[in-house]
Specification:
CATH topology of the largest domain: Rossmann fold
Distance between the termini: 46 Å
Mean pLDDT: 93
Order of helices and strands: EHEHEHEHEEHEHEHEHEHEHHHEEEE
Structural class: alpha/beta
Oligomer: single chain
Number of helices: 12
Strand content: 15-25%
Radius of gyration: 21 Å
Shape: globular
Helix content: 25-40%
Number of domains: 2
CATH superfamily of the largest domain: Response regulator
Low-confidence stretches: 5-21
Largest sheet: 6 strands, mixed
CATH class of the largest domain: Alpha Beta
């Protein structure tokens, strides 16, 4: 297991006017899929966290103390993620952990983090990460049930009542599939065809041919790249013209790059970062969205993605929790950080405005979601 550590800079290099003594760093961990099949999600998270640590330390650290983040690459593997989390807690002595990237790896470490009494702020989507509630486990992405409801609302608005679903055979896909099944009757939606695809599959024409032969009026695809992009191309090859709704698992420009012209017209509910300029100035998230987007794109010369925003929000929540502890002159402990995270109220982030409680460790509602459509090779806000 390789670790990439962003080491703290002494306060004499950080604070205006300098100082003559070193201050102890505040150490947290990060577990992201920096390489491997989920790197399209995890790499922007790693880049974002590294950038944010530098920004925090250049601005004086947290209460004058430098922030140190120890990174481990999970490669999207559950066993490696658990090994990394144990190393962060038992060897590195971190006070909190941000990540993992995927639902499967998050579920693999959730019980360990909770039993160890170390706050884990997941960057994955499955509602199972925070349900049932674990005292020390939180997440910063919209749960799949909110995404499903937003898709079903759009289908109902369009007068569509019969759909097919094509979901990935992994933790993310299974969780989405469960929510699609659970809420379909509530919205008067009939699921006439149910198909799956493997995360590593390179052709889905067999499943799509079966779907084409049903009475489905629209297709819902639930997975992360490259699968959904391959599905879009396969649909064009089969001359399938039904409306397609994707999950938020493809909310980055990479999906449009991979699918090419076949992505045109595809719809999905996402966080506002991909259409930040199209959001009204009165929106409470607008300032954060622009700040993050401009910093990331200047630093890395690539489009910002929803996934990098998850790391921004996770670290922002830890940062503000630490600042409150220092302001209140309280000891910084693992338990104290958990209490402060749980007490977060009205914090505007990239995904939405966070309000946690002792019964809600997701802290988001549907206000942070918008519906977008791929138009002319870019995201376009849909007014529905």
């Amino acid at each position: 297991m390789k670790a990439r550590s962003v080491f703290a800079v002494f306060c004499c290099l950080l604070l205006a006017g300098g100082c003559s003594s070193k201050k102890e760093s505040i150490k947290i961990g990060a577990v992201f899929a920096l390489t491997g099949p989920a790197a399209m999600l995890g790499a922007p998270e790693g880049k974002t966290a590294e950038m944010m640590v530098r920004m925090i330390n250049e601005d004086g650290g947290i209460g004058g103390r430098p922030l140190e983040v120890i990174f481990y690459d999970t490669e999207g593997d559950s066993t490696k993620t658990l090994t990394a989390a144990k190393k962060l807690v038992e060897k590195d002595g971190v006070l909190a952990i941000i990540g993992p990237t995927t639902s499967g790896t998050s579920l693999a470490v959730a019980d360990f983090a909770n039993e160890a009494g170390v706050t884990l702020i997941s960057c994955a989507s499955s509602y199972k990460i925070v349900n049932p509630l674990r005292e020390y486990v939180f997440k910063v992405t919209h749960s799949d049930d909110l995404i499903v409801k937003r898709i079903f609302e759009a289908l109902r608005y369009q007068g569509i009542a019969d759909v097919a679903i094509l979901t990935a055979s992994d933790g993310f896909g299974d969780s989405g599939r469960e929510m699609l099944e659970l809420h379909s009757e509530e919205f008067g939606i009939r699921i006439s065809s149910r198909e799956r695809f493997g995360p590593g599959d390179t052709d889905m024409t067999t499943q799509l041919t079966r779907i084409k032969g049903t009475g489905a009026q629209a297709l819902i695809v639930w997975g992360t790249n490259p699968g959904p992009a391959i599905i879009a191309k396969n649909m064009r090859q089969l001359a399938m013209t039904m409306p397609v709704y994707n999950s938020h698992g493809v909310a980055s420009k990479k999906f449009i790059e991979l699918a090419g012209e076949a992505s045109e017209g595809i719809l999905l509910p996402v966080g506002k970062i991909v259409v930040a300029d199209q959001i009204p100035d009165s929106d409470p998230q607008k300032r954060v969205l622009i700040e993050y987007r401009d910093a990331y794109e200047k630093e890395f010369n690539e489009p910002v993605s929803t996934f990098g925003g998850h790391a921004w929000d996770a670290l922002l929540i830890v940062k503000t929790s630490l600042e409150r502890l220092i302001e209140d002159k309280e000891e910084i402990t693992r338990e104290a950080i958990k209490d402060q995270v749980e007490g977060t109220r009205g914090l505007a982030g990239v995904a939405g405005v966070y309000t946690f409680s002792d019964t809600d460790h997701n802290g988001l509602n549907s206000d942070g979601l918008v519906m977008v459509e791929v138009k002319n090779g870019d995201w376009s806000l849909v007014s529905q």
